[in-house]
Design a protein that fits this description.
Helices cover about 70% and strands about 5% of the residues. By secondary structure, the chain is mainly α.
């Protein structure tokens, strides 16, 4: 995945406005959004001087924002290069997918046990929305946003603040991996079919089966994303 050398060439942002929200939070939100929307791609350097000039804020504010995004896993500080947009390695991606499979299967199990019939209907609607969106749009950001609706329904129905905090904490880190998987031809259609089976188990109130199907869905996505990462790492290896 290629990146531009300068921030201005990759991403344009208006200077931060002096509004009620602290400037630090505005900068964090602007950078986080740019990363999650792939305006700033993995490997893109985040040069302090360029950020200061583009956003119209102080060096201290920029450094505080970069520290926060580093703690979220969206930014990595690389020796001799400084801050860059994180690009998960193959080993990190393998771990993240396995963590996702375990956590999301627990989330689905709790959802089936605790959700109302209306919330299960909303889950089915969210899956169909994802299927329709992925069929008509080639914009991976739009497709991922439609998948996020499904997670919102699951998190609400599971009624577990602990799971909500943990899962939302890793969702941003795996977004680039989800984009890699969903960008594979035919994967979105297969994903929709997998999710429909999960919803069918949820309607039957079979929590164990719904959880199993969720974990299977994540691990199938992992196969695609990890294959692409292996190929990318292989192409970068010295001959």
């Amino acid at each position: 995945m290629t990146t531009t050398n300068t921030l201005a060439g990759a991403w344009a942002s208006d200077p931060m406005e002096r509004v009620a929200a602290p400037l630090r939070e505005q900068v964090i939100t602007a950078l986080r959004t740019a990363i999650l929307n792939f305006q700033l791609r993995p490997g893109q350097r985040l040069v302090e001087r360029e950020l200061i000039e583009q956003l119209g804020v102080s060096r201290t504010t920029v450094r505080e924002a970069l520290r926060e995004l580093t703690s979220e896993g969206l930014v990595t500080v690389v020796p001799q290069r400084g801050a860059v947009v994180s690009a998960p390695s193959l080993a990190e991606a393998e771990d993240l997918y396995e963590i996702r499979a375990v956590l999301e299967s627990i989330l689905v199990e709790r959802f089936v046990l605790r959700a109302t019939d209306a919330q299960i209907d909303r889950l089915g609607d969210a899956v169909e929305h994802f299927a329709e969106t992925s069929a008509r749009s080639k914009d991976i950001r739009v497709v991922l946003d439609s998948k996020d609706v499904l997670y919102e329904v699951l998190i609400e129905g599971a009624a577990s603040p602990a799971l909500k905090n943990i899962i939302e904490g890793i969702q941003a880190r795996v977004r680039i991996l989800r984009a890699t998987s969903m960008g594979e031809p035919g994967r979105a259609e297969v994903a929709a079919a997998e999710l429909r089976l999960m919803v069918a188990a949820a309607r039957e109130r079979d929590a164990a089966e719904a959880a199993r199907l969720c974990a299977l869905h994540v691990r199938n996505a992992a196969q695609t994303a990890l294959k692409n990462l292996r190929e990318a790492e292989g192409s970068d290896a010295p001959e």
